[in-house]
Write a structure and sequence with these properties.
Number of strands: 8
Number of helices: 5
Order of helices and strands: EHEEEEHEEHHEH
Mean pLDDT: 82
Number of domains: 1
Radius of gyration: 15 Å
Structural class: alpha/beta
C-alpha cells in the first residue's frame, strides 16, 4: 500500500528552499491560516516558529531529491524540511494534497523568501476516494507526538514534482 503524500513541492519551490537553506540553515514550513500573511506557506529557520501541540505534520520534503527521484531513507537533517499546518486547518484540508510552489511577487513579511521578490504559494488537488481511504487509516503526527519523540515515517515517494506532472491541471490556483 503506497501512502499518498499530503504535501508535494515543485522543482522551482525546492530550488528556492535550497537557496534559503544555504543562507539561513535548516528550514521548516508552516501553512499559514490567514490573518496578516494570507494563506501562503511560511518559511522559517527551524526552531524559530514554535509548533503547537495540535499542529499537524503534513510531511517532510527532501531538498536533495530531483524530479522523479525516490528517497531511499530519511533526508539528511540539512535537506529535511518539515511542513506543518494548524490542527483546525488540517481538519478542513485533510482531503486535499497541498503542493508548495513559488511565484514572482512579494511574500509575507515573516517568511524568509520575502526579500527575494518571490513567494511561496500553495496549490492543491483533492485526493481520490481510494487515497482518502488509505489516509483515513493513518493518524497524522501532531506537534505533541513529535515532542514525545515520534519520528515521521520514511516517505516512499518523491516529494518533488515537475511542470510536466499534470498537477497544474488539478490545482485550484491557476499558474
Amino acid at each position: 500500500m503506497t501512502v499518498p503524500p499530503r504535501v508535494l513541492i515543485t522543482a522551482d519551490a525546492r530550488d528556492l528552499l535550497r537557496i534559503l537553506r544555504d543562507r539561513h540553515g535548516h528550514l521548516m514550513l508552516h501553512q499559514s491560516g490567514g490573518c496578516c500573511d494570507g494563506s501562503s506557506p511560511m518559511c522559517y529557520p527551524t526552531g524559530e516558529f514554535i509548533v503547537g501541540d495540535r499542529d499537524v505534520l503534513l510531511g517532510v520534503l527532501d531538498l536533495a531529491l530531483d524530479v522523479g527521484e525516490t528517497p531511499a531513507a530519511l533526508p539528511a537533517e540539512a535537506d529535511a524540511v518539515q511542513v506543518w499546518i494548524s490542527g483546525p486547518q488540517f481538519a478542513a484540508w485533510r482531503r486535499t494534497q497541498l503542493i508548495v510552489d513559488m511565484v514572482p511577487g512579494r511574500g509575507g513579511g515573516f517568511s524568509l523568501e520575502a526579500p527575494e521578490g518571490l513567494r511561496f504559494l500553495t496549490r492543491s488537488r483533492t485526493f481520490t476516494t481510494h487515497e482518502n481511504a488509505i489516509l483515513d487509516r493513518m493518524a497524522p503526527l501532531a506537534g505533541a507526538d513529535m515532542e514525545a519523540g515520534a519520528i515521521p515515517p520514511i516517505p516512499d515517494h518523491a516529494t518533488v514534482i515537475g511542470d510536466d506532472s499534470g498537477a497544474g491541471a488539478d490545482c485550484m490556483v491557476p499558474k
